[in-house]
Design brief:
Elements: E1 2-6, H1 13-25, E2 30-33, H2 44-54, H3 62-68, H4 78-93, H5 96-103, E3 109-111, E4 114-116, H6 134-141, E5 148-150, E6 158-162, E7 165-169, E8 178-179, E9 185-186, E10 190-197, E11 200-207, H7 210-218, H8 225-233
Parallel strand pairs: 1-2, 4-5, 5-7
Antiparallel strand pairs: 1-10, 3-4, 6-7, 8-9, 10-11
Length: 236
């Protein structure tokens, strides 16, 4: 069964539609979503509705949980405060139906030999990286037996071995990170996802219309929309 693994949409419907169009051309049999569907982007309500329309399993991401139980913003962090403002706005855009959809997301999804989670099976906040020590990875995946372990959260694609299994991160649909030499990042003009077929994994990067992403943001009253599109606009 060819399953499209998507993650970290972050309210970016333009990029999500690009991925869904590409997945249809790849003749996938179904989808699984690894969470972070609505927060930190200009189309939170639309993203939740589009994912719901797929009728696929969805994992609870850290920002999905935050939208259900908003917390305080970070102190003394300008960018963090902007993100907090955007996420509060995203929360205001969601009605009872969207919040009910978020509340139905699951901590872990076991699907056709694939263990699906957001950060790790034990925490949606945990980062599993190419450099995570093997003993730490062993502990994070303990209690689960799968041929493929799939998580998101870091917004960076990954493939590594774990005993006879593979551990993957499909990257981000709506907010992929391109790390720069100075430690900052930009959003490249692509949407990322993966197709898993038993133990075969294909990573895909789909071109995204940056002008459409920018227009989608600027047509809303999302706070800091100019700041949000800044990291996209460089690639036009």
């Amino acid at each position: 069964m060819r399953t499209a693994v998507i993650s970290d949409i972050h309210g970016n419907l333009v990029s999500l539609e690009a991925v869904l169009d590409d997945a249809a051309r790849q003749a996938v049999d179904g989808f699984v979503c690894l969470g972070d569907v609505a927060a930190t982007g200009p189309q939170p309500r639309e993203a939740v509705a589009r994912i719901a329309g797929l009728r696929c399993p969805v994992v609870m991401g850290n920002t999905d949980h935050w939208l259900l139980e908003p917390g305080p913003g970070p102190a003394d962090d300008e960018d963090g405060e902007r993100i907090h403002d955007i996420d509060l706005w995203c929360r205001e855009q969601l009605g009872p139906a969207e919040l009910a959809a978020l509340a139905g997301y699951e901590p872990v999804v076991e699907l056709d030999g694939v263990c699906c989670y957001h950060g790790s099976p034990r925490s949606f906040d945990e980062e599993l990286l190419p450099t995570t020590p093997p003993a730490d990875l062993e502990a994070a995946l303990a209690g689960h037996n799968a041929g493929v372990y799939a998580g998101g959260h870091t917004h960076q694609a990954m493939l590594r071995r774990h005993h006879t299994a593979l551990v993957i991160n499909p990257g981000s649909v709506g907010m992929p990170f391109e790390l720069l030499g100075d430690g900052t990042f930009r959003n490249p003009p692509v949407a990322e996802y993966a197709i898993v077929d038993e133990r075969d994994v294909e990573f895909r990067r789909v071109p995204v219309n940056v002008a459409a992403v920018t227009t989608a943001a600027m047509r809303t009253d999302m706070p800091h929309s100019g700041w949000w599109v800044r990291d996209w606009a460089w690639s036009q």
